[in-house]
Write the structure tokens for this entry.
Amino acid sequence: MGPAVPVEGSLAGWAYRTQSLRVEESGTGGGITAWFPLLDGAERLGVLAVHETVLTASSLTRGRALASLLAMVITSRRSYEESFVRHTRTEPMQLPAELLRALLPPRTIGDGNVVSTAVLEPAYEIGGDAFDHALTETTLHVAVLDAMGHDLASGLTTTVSLAACRNARRTGADLAELVRGVDEALSTWLPDKFCTSVIAQLDLVTGVLRWANCGHPAPILIRDQRLIIDAMERDADPPMGAPSLLSPHARRTHEITLEPGDRVLMYTDGVVEARTREAKLLGLERFADYVIRATAGGELAPESLRRLIHSILAMQEGRLRDDATLLMFEWRPPS
């Protein structure tokens, strides 16, 4: 492998951040270096450097073809070939993190109608946080979960919740049935554990967003680079698992219609409970300000979220007091 190239302050990083071709003079020996983004659909895998003495239309075409082929090779092999995983890690991963990481979907998914992207920190020591997103022809399914505790048991709780959520989704269950399926799975297999969550479904044609809030922070709606105050603030139901069975009330689902370009941000409480250098809680208000500023420059959603989590980590000097998970999706139907 070649030397590491920083994401910030390099043309390679620029190609990665913007998902677009960047060209520069080669540092040694003359010629041209073209940086091609490596993409698996909407997910960023890295960049590919192609060195040429002269850059022509033909060499650009070959470079794009090579980048597409390499992205497919990486995607097909990283599920079973250990070398890719080892190269992307900077330190050993603890067992709860290894358990949960094996079940997480790609960080970014999307098509012409929507993009959904997520980050989870800390990467190597997570206990109970997780995210999930999936696409069908008509619907985006998203979920953010936060299990009680920060150990292997909390990782197992989130694992069971994720599996139950996917099982219900793949059998065509509606949102209420899906949440009930997670309740029953946790109550059966881990009766002394529970999990907070927001689970949502977005109709890609109409923009109708339906969600259930199970003891979790309310999602944030961003429209025209402004926070729409309390747009998705609703009374939360009990966490998923045994607490829901003790409640006399049925699970509730909520509904809102998005406008094209709207972004919805879901998060765990570890985000707003982070502390600034002045030892003050970040809080929802300051967190929302970070979101607006991170999305104000017309950035792609994955880059906005990457910058946001790095801002939060910088305030914490790289160490969070609690797991922090962010998931943001943007509805952008064709005009």
Notes: The first strand starts at residue 22 and ends at 25. The CA atoms of residues 31 and 215 lie 58 Å apart.
